[in-house]
């Protein structure tokens, strides 16, 4: 896929977004407006309030979900799969996708795949597309090692506003553990050394550890452990635009997705829990370390019951785009809530070697200054 094709495709994608609401004044398709938080008509400018609520405290039962697949989102969405990168995009039932917003490929087709679990909560976009572009430009100007002509000649691709899937898990954990606790003690040792050709007795303190084994129980409730459910957005980039402030989550409504894309979770619920369990287990280990006191503490074994596991499917906002320079495509992301940018950018070999040269020159200068004084 050439960069230019990507740009054209991305441009076409905008027509196929998830418009759901008709404007009451002119009949146009309204879209969610991040700056006002309303459904806005891009043709006549009229706005419709969205009644925002945060009541969805329902935690869904994890074990039940494993037994019976949840297809609750099927009533609203169809799944389009990209034949190139494999990303699954969710669109409203009456919409058609021509291009993949994750890679730009046109090998995208509607599937019979289930849309899956309807999200419980969504973090609505707060950063408009224009603001996202501004944030990107500021970020670009700070790329001091980029080639000088980058700023004048890069070509920005269309920005796709996409809601990215995450899982959050709760669990009451009860663990039995075995630890070895070591306490320091000192013994006085005498040994013979040779000093000025004569043997001499010296005494010294040697540190030893007295061990005892202890068994115990540790209980902790884990609330809203957040893990990614997307494989299609490079996690190295996504980690750098975090954090998302989750106190902004509101009950899921189709309105928030109007004009935006949603990605179907590519990390299934069960795998999501395995990822969350790593976080939970770390929490348990540090909890045990926090309560067992000794000079040295070794955790021998921990056996945990994860009770009442519940989950939520939530959507977080990302502007996804790329820019082109010298026929190469560089991906970048903008956090749709905070505007934080992360991305790849070209590095000028000349500028980088000049910088290395300057550093070496400074080091040599410091060496000589120190030598003289
Ligand atoms: Zn209108
Ligand atoms: Zn793709």
TrEMBL record:
Transmembrane segments: 352-370
Gene3D superfamilies: RNA polymerase ii, chain L (2.20.28.30)
Domain of life, per lineage: Bacteria
Keywords associated with the record: Membrane, Transmembrane, Transmembrane helix
Name of this chain's protein: Zn finger protein HypA/HybF involved in hydrogenase expression
Naturally occurring in which organism (per UniProt): Sporosarcina psychrophila (Bacillus psychrophilus)
Source taxonomy: Bacteria, Bacillati, Bacillota, Bacilli, Bacillales
